[in-house]
Amino acid sequence: MIEHHVSHLPAGYQAASDCLHQRVILVTGAGSGIGRTMSLALARHGATVILLGRTLSTLETLYDEIEAQKLPQPAIYPMNLQGATEADYRDLCNTLEAEFGQVHGILHNAGDLGDRTSVRDYTSATWERVMQVNVTAPFLLTQALLPLLEQVEDASVVFTSSGVAVRGRAFWGAYAASKAASDNLMQTLADEYEQRAVRFNSINPGATRTAMRARAYPAEDPQTLKTPEALIPLYLYLLGSDSRTISGQWFDADTFD
Predict the structure, then answer these.
(1) Which of 77, 130, 206, 215 is the most buried (most CB within 10 A)?
(2) CA distances (Å), 189 to each of 135, 159, 185, 252, in order?
(3) What's the domain count of the chain?
């Protein structure tokens, strides 16, 4: 089993209002849920946010909202991670290099739940799709953008984990396996960059009021869950310079103060 030494947000942590000033941060799955909330929060704290997602209309709505608040002008980059190729990620890197010159952070937020069914009944097509979106896409995206991340003194890559990454549970199939693989990838990168200025960590958002959570637990009352806004301090901490010495750690959002 992959080891998870649970880390926590420092007690009483409050991010400075300009903690992400002049930082360029790419968010996958930016159009909805945690990705949307974090994109807004990052922009409100000074970041230029690259909104990456598969649905252009939701990205445009979010873009307009950020613009209406007179925050740093974001950028939209439509991409379907399910079908994206190495060439697509190279094109993304080239575009960001031409437009911004460097990248300070990546939030790997996009995810595919797959089917809540037994492994015996799991289809290979669904398995491959979930692995593509949850593991291969973050690998290819991170690999493509490493040259841009390496150009800054303080770069941060945040992966999205899950409680089922720690211990697989019945009927979580490819999702559980993919999150364990994602955490292992994070740890591998952190080890490879131990002496360099790019850091890698994972966040387990825990039980949060999102559409994916509703699909996973259709009988659950969403009003009993925390909202994505409750997660903002932890994401600001890991994507800002306050965590510059933290790498290779697994943060559980349900256990921080």
Answers:
(1) 130
(2) 13, 11, 6, 20
(3) 1
